Amino acid sequence: MNTNKRKIVNDPVYGFISINNDLIFDLIEHPWVQRLRRIRQLGLTNLVYPGAMHTRFQHVLGAYFLMNQAIEVIRSKGHEITDEEAEAVNIAILLHDIGHGPFSHALEFGIIEGFTHESISELLMAGLNAQFNNRLTLAIAIFQDKYHKRFLHQLVSGQLDMDRLDYLRRDSFFTGVSEGVVGSDRIIKMLNVVDDKLVVEAKGIYSIEKFLIARRLMYWQVYLHKTVLSAENLLINILKRAKELSLQGDKLFAPPALEYFLFKKFDRSFINAADEKDLNTMLQHFVRLDDTDIISATKVWMEHDDKILSTLCQKMISRQLYKIELQNQPFSAERIAEMIEKTEKHFSLSSKEASFMVFADSITSNIYETGEHNIGILYNNGKVVDIAEASDMLNMQVLTKVVTKHFLCYPKEIISKI
Amino acid sequence: MNTNKRKIVNDPVYGFISINNDLIFDLIEHPWVQRLRRIRQLGLTNLVYPGAMHTRFQHVLGAYFLMNQAIEVIRSKGHEITDEEAEAVNIAILLHDIGHGPFSHALEFGIIEGFTHESISELLMAGLNAQFNNRLTLAIAIFQDKYHKRFLHQLVSGQLDMDRLDYLRRDSFFTGVSEGVVGSDRIIKMLNVVDDKLVVEAKGIYSIEKFLIARRLMYWQVYLHKTVLSAENLLINILKRAKELSLQGDKLFAPPALEYFLFKKFDRSFINAADEKDLNTMLQHFVRLDDTDIISATKVWMEHDDKILSTLCQKMISRQLYKIELQNQPFSAERIAEMIEKTEKHFSLSSKEASFMVFADSITSNIYETGEHNIGILYNNGKVVDIAEASDMLNMQVLTKVVTKHFLCYPKEIISKI
Amino acid sequence: MNTNKRKIVNDPVYGFISINNDLIFDLIEHPWVQRLRRIRQLGLTNLVYPGAMHTRFQHVLGAYFLMNQAIEVIRSKGHEITDEEAEAVNIAILLHDIGHGPFSHALEFGIIEGFTHESISELLMAGLNAQFNNRLTLAIAIFQDKYHKRFLHQLVSGQLDMDRLDYLRRDSFFTGVSEGVVGSDRIIKMLNVVDDKLVVEAKGIYSIEKFLIARRLMYWQVYLHKTVLSAENLLINILKRAKELSLQGDKLFAPPALEYFLFKKFDRSFINAADEKDLNTMLQHFVRLDDTDIISATKVWMEHDDKILSTLCQKMISRQLYKIELQNQPFSAERIAEMIEKTEKHFSLSSKEASFMVFADSITSNIYETGEHNIGILYNNGKVVDIAEASDMLNMQVLTKVVTKHFLCYPKEIISKI
Amino acid sequence: MNTNKRKIVNDPVYGFISINNDLIFDLIEHPWVQRLRRIRQLGLTNLVYPGAMHTRFQHVLGAYFLMNQAIEVIRSKGHEITDEEAEAVNIAILLHDIGHGPFSHALEFGIIEGFTHESISELLMAGLNAQFNNRLTLAIAIFQDKYHKRFLHQLVSGQLDMDRLDYLRRDSFFTGVSEGVVGSDRIIKMLNVVDDKLVVEAKGIYSIEKFLIARRLMYWQVYLHKTVLSAENLLINILKRAKELSLQGDKLFAPPALEYFLFKKFDRSFINAADEKDLNTMLQHFVRLDDTDIISATKVWMEHDDKILSTLCQKMISRQLYKIELQNQPFSAERIAEMIEKTEKHFSLSSKEASFMVFADSITSNIYETGEHNIGILYNNGKVVDIAEASDMLNMQVLTKVVTKHFLCYPKEIISKI
Question: Domain limits at C178?
Answer without folding.
Answer: 3-225
